[in-house]
Design goal:
Elements: H1 14-21, E1 37-47, E2 52-62, E3 65-76, E4 87-95, E5 98-104, H2 109-121, E6 124-125, E7 128-132, E8 144-146, E9 154-158, E10 162-166, H3 176-186, E11 195-201, E12 217-224, E13 230-231, H4 232-244, H5 258-261, H6 269-290, E14 292-294, H7 299-317, H8 325-338, E15 343-345, E16 356-358, E17 363-365, H9 376-380, H10 386-406, H11 415-439, H12 449-470, H13 476-485
Antiparallel strand pairs: 1-2, 2-3, 3-5, 4-5, 6-7, 7-11, 8-9, 9-10, 10-12, 11-12, 13-16, 14-15, 16-17
Length: about 475
Amino acid sequence: MTAKPSGPPTGTSLARLLAGWLPRQRWFGGKDGPIDDLAIATAVEILPGDPALHHLVVDVRQNTGTDHYQILLGVRRDLPEALEPHAIGRVDGREHGITGYVYDGAHDPLLTRPLLAHMADERTIGPLRFRRAPGTGIRTDLDATPASAEQSNTSLIFGDAYICKLFRRLSPGVNPDLEINLALSREGCEHIPAVHGWIELDPAAHAVSGPAPDEPVTLALLSEFLRTATDGWHLALTSVRDWLAQPLPPGTDGGPTPADAGEAGGDFAAEAERLGAATAAVHRALADAFGVTQAPPGLLREIVFAMNEQLDQVSAAVPELRPYAHAIRAVFDEVAAGAGPLTFQRVHGDYHLGQVLRTETGWTLLDFEGEPARTPAERRAPAHPLRDVAGMLRSFEYAARFLLVRDAGLHSPTADVLEQRAQAWAERNRAAFCAGYAAAGGPDPAEHAALVRAFEFDKAVYEIRYEAANRPAWLPVPLRSLARLAG
């Protein structure tokens, strides 16, 4: 059955249609302002016919900056009802060889299956290069289903074999997720999924400028799909839910303690300790693959300057942060004045419970792309490994309080007790993670407490900026834990 989409406009230019469609997408990074201009920079036909698949790179100008997005554009003469939610509109004028109903082709299995075949054959189509990882084979008989999780990219799951991440917002050069996964694979690291292939764009085809203009631009990464794995965020939330539902011991007057949290059903501390050990193992492999450097004099002061700059920007935009700004700045200044020699290396860069999977054999780390709001240079720059540790410690705080915010527990008659319970869970699992990390050879967080605290504050400020711009309903989660961190 086919139907004409009633919502999207028809008979208008493709660029105008895309300008109306892009801001409604979860992965669009410019929701906080209008689109000033949109231009189609490259348009490549990957699959002719009906349906057809076109690959687009669009340049989106907002304020004084320009971002670059990739779109898998499906084109059909008639649009099936199942694809109507993904419709963009109708093009009547045959722009870039396109006429008919256009839609997000990532949701059409007939259009995504050819991506596997092209990677398996290592084809080149115009400026698009399809690559297969050395020593691997790629099945070509699988249809894709887009993952349903909220993401800043789009992930296509091919049967039970592969997951293909489409990088929607493009960065200059090789994406750190591909660069790091390939390097860790060469090191034999057992805590990452295997890389099977990727797609890249010839840098001569588009001015996605960067420090290495001859580097291809990474468009997609095809990795092993860990079908039986469960992500750390959902495992942690299950543990928190069980703990919050436990009755208090008789006679309790001082609130629950971290030890009490260990007596609840579904205790997470053993897994947190194993995750700490896996994190240390990946950090060692990253050091072996990319090397380590001694931070030169003044680098830490530059890092603290950037932390203070972000704090100023976010405080100006989010008034709820301002009461804590003085305490945060004092911690930053303490680190700048007192830290000794530090060793820097490549790190994960955006480490939290949603970036790890628990498999039957242990923990696996994912998504080495770095924080979405950081510049490409910041994502690829060496850092202290305790920055990742601080990111995971923040994630335990998030997991502890997320259910309270979602279920309005912060405003319930038992809000104080629930907050104490959440904090007890967070403290127990933070301590277990740090113990596992140090025992496996990572720098002991307890011996660098001020540095970890500064990294935690910086991460919390980043979280507040991100939530205020993208998920305002989640803003109380980092604010609540920030109140505790700031004393």
